[in-house]
Amino acid sequence: MELQASLQSLHITSPDPAQAARFYSGTYGMTQIPAGDGFICRGPARTLQLSKGEASRLKYAHYGLQTDAAWKAFTQRVKGLEHHPVPEAMSACKDAIALKDPDGNIMVFTPPVPVKVEGASAALPPATLQHFGMRTTNLPAMLAFYTEQLGFVLSDAVKDPEGVLRACFLRTDALHHSLALFFAPVSCFDHQSFEAPDWQSMRVWGDHMAAIKVPIVWGIGRHGPGNDVFFMVRDPDGNLAEISAEIEHCEPGRPAGQWAHEERTLNLWGMAFLRS
Ligand SMILES: [Fe+2]
Q1: Domains and CATH numbers, the chain
Q2: 197 CA to centre of ligand 1 in angstroms
Q3: Is the dihedral of CA 137, 138, 139, 145 positive or negative?
Q4: Measured between alpha carbons, how far is 107 from 144 in angstroms, rounded to an integer?
Q5: CA–centroid distance, residue 221 to ligand 1 (Å)
Q6: Labelling 256: which of 22, 45, 117, 147 has CA 20 to 30 A away?
Q7: Interval between CA 132 and ligand 1 midpoint (Å)
């Protein structure tokens, strides 16, 4: 049984938060509000906070449990784990729980929260912050933490010919993955993805990137795990940002899939971006 949780927001650091905020405002139709030494960027159902720091570092990710019953079950699950102080920006939520993964990433969980729909992008189609990816040098320990400790469910694993785990896709509700983990030489933030409702919306998003002269650096293609159609642009710090559609809806109890570590797995339609 999945946690019944969905990704609410990400907080990443950047050497130049103003530049990064301008990028996300333009590409993803978000407003930017000064916050501390950085900005909060918001669009309908998508929130990204940027603060001053090293490039490609996750400060924290926020998941909201979807029902009171799911929240109660989650608090029971993690009550024996070591809790981390809740980041100041989340302190208004007195029930929030923060946990640190083996790579030191902070994951914040809260009871159900209303979806924020304010934003500046009424002319753009919907695109909900749906999943994100991280690179890790420590993939087996990360997988064990998220599945065994937190209750994320493995949807698909990618292994090389020697049987070494190279990527895994974890879900927290019926959607195929809300977190992707990639084995890589350096642990860091990899990408975030905004899920559009359909193909037509992706075309509009693609034309929007063209209009503001932001090149698509990967795609358009279709991922093997998740079966989502996607394209990606790259932010000024080198992070990827994705628009996707048609992500797989998993039935409860769906067995975890196994994929070969090859380009076709990450892009059934063509070339892939392999992290290692
Ligand atoms: Fe993705």
Answers
A1: 5-110 (3.10.180.10), 128-266 (3.10.180.10)
A2: 15
A3: negative
A4: 15
A5: 12
A6: 45
A7: 6
pLDDT tens-place string over residues 222-263: 999 999 999 999 999 999 999 999 999 999 999 999 999 999
All residues with CB under 5 Å from ion ligand 1 = 193, 242
- How many angstroms is it from 188 CA to the middle of ligand 1? 15
Tokens of 168: 């895994």
Give, for all 276 residues of the chain, the pLDDT tens digit.
899 999 999 999 999 999 999 999 999 999 999 999 999 999 999 999 999 999 999 999 999 999 999 999 999 999 999 999 999 988 888 899 999 999 999 999 999 987 655 555 668 999 999 999 999 999 999 999 999 999 999 999 999 999 999 999 999 999 999 999 999 999 999 999 999 999 899 999 999 999 999 999 999 999 999 999 999 999 999 999 999 999 999 999 999 999 999 998 999 998 887 787
Instruction: List the alpha helices (DSSP H) in the chain.
Output: 17-28, 68-78, 139-144, 199-211, 263-266
Alpha carbons within 13 angstroms on the beta-carbon side of residue 187 total: 12
For residue 88, the 8-state DSSP code is: G
Is residue 31 within 8 A of residue 119, CB to CB? The reply is yes
**Structure tokens, 81:** 């784990």
Residue type at position 191: H
Distance 102 CA to ligand 1 centre (A): 21
Quickly tell me which residue has 């975890």 as its tokens. 256
Q: What is the pLDDT of residue 114?
A: 72
For the chain, the C-alpha Rg in angstroms (whole number) is: 18
Q: Which two tokens stand for residue 122?
A: 């009424």
Q: What is the pTM of this model?
A: 0.96
